[in-house]
Design goal:
heterodimer; A: alpha/beta; Alpha-Beta Plaits; 6-stranded mixed sheet; 11 helices; 32% helix; B: mainly alpha; MetI-like fold
Chain lengths: 339, 221
Amino acid sequence: MSPATPPPRIELIDLAKTYATPAGETAAVRGVSLRVAPGEVFGIIGESGAGKSTLIRLINLLERPTAGQVLVDGEDIVALAADDLRRLRRRVGMIFQHFNLLSSKTVAQNIAFPLRLEGRITAAQIRVRVAQLLARVGLSDLAGSYPAQLSGGQKQRVGIARALACGPNVLLCDEATSALDPETTGQVLDLLAELNRDLGLTIILITHEMDVVRRICDRVAVLDRGCVVEQGEVVEVFLNAEHPVTRRLLREHVPDAAPALTQGARRVRLTWRGAVSQTPFLSRIAREQRVDFNLEGGRIAQIKGEPYGQLTLTLSGANLEGALAGFAAAGIRIREVAA
Amino acid sequence: MSAILVHIDWPSIAQATLETLAMLGGSLALSIALGLPLGVMLFLTGRGQMFARPLLNGVLSLAINILRSVPFIILLILMMPLTLAMTGTSLGVPGAIPPLVVGAAPFFARLVETALREVDRGVIEAVQAMGARPRQIVLGALLPEALPGILAGATVTAIALVSYTAMAGVVGAGGLGDLAVRFGYQRFQTDVMAVTVILLLVLVQGLQLVGDRLVTHFSRR
């Protein structure tokens, strides 16, 4: 970490959680260490049973860790007294897969609920704040409705408004879009991205969907059986997925057997991100260096607005070294793929 | 008309109706007042709950089961000395209310516990995550969410109390059930039997109707 990097908003140090079950002890989270910077959108992805739900609940101590530390703005919260922990929880909002709204209360009452817990705020102040929050999530006309009358996407918006009520600087999202259809998922993710941008809200989300990570996360950690197996910038993790779980989550099919290379041909994987995507580098280099290429697989897409691409191709021709030097000069990473 | 209802003494029917209503009203109010906190305690001390206390929960649960397994007629008689100490009499409507409450409150407490268990755990978790105190969780979230179930339980309890009051004649508390036994059954006055039973039926129907209305009103699902 360079000195200019701000101290992490959330830092997990060797965090572990073990449950006692009739069959013995089960470790749900084993020694997870993470740092999440202020204003960052951090994704934790894993398959079901990887320990994601437990991990996110350790961050606001809905689950008590068996070992390790949870630092929020540098303060270890595991040791906090009950009252201090309650105060801390007002700075850390949380939304849930199944929304978890109070069915007996209206939308406005649900959003007012966390505000009422504080006691030092007047009814008039609550009304103003609730109106602001409803406008923020675009539900002003549904203030008097009950959750049962809302669609899933609307319920999650209420959940988000409720989580923001006390002005937290961290939002924990527990599979927040897993119960929603793809279109609604997109709208909710857009709203989260907007809140991140406008309020500088730090967001930690857990999910089993790569698309969620791709769409809004800055960095990602891949969780497998309670351990972080890969982490880093989303683009990097996507483009250099090494761990089988990451590759499975990416639904990256590795061909069973690549066709045999002809004499003198080489198979390489080219990886690039950013502006180079907008240049016709492949045909230019092929023309200049007089090589032929055959595409074997790859993808070209965007992550959080940044274009990236990865192609596996076989090159043949006289000046293969020249072609590879050309790719490198264009800022493209090259990896030789075993024949 | 009068040839069929030859034995009917309307003033005593009215008197009995009032006695039944007095017993029902008094005992229902007290049963709810005692059973609700008892049910909440039973729930909160249960396994995996906010204030899990296995021993306390076990003792509470056993006490409730014991009270619930004593037939009401026996409870009525067993309670006499206690009732005398509490109300100054073991007779009449005041003498019937303590045993009615002891019979119904544990029953209602169980129904409250069941209603609380039906509350979505995720909702409670969300409220915890907001930094609510236990008191705020119980009063602000748990009870309002369980209200329809609790009201349905109160309705069932009220109707059970109606049938309990029929036995309260044993301690001279009167009431419609007592009238049916003494005149309708013991003196073969079938018309008295029929009228009292019809009145009880109307009472039970009325209670169920009001209960159902309240449940519907408070269910926002």
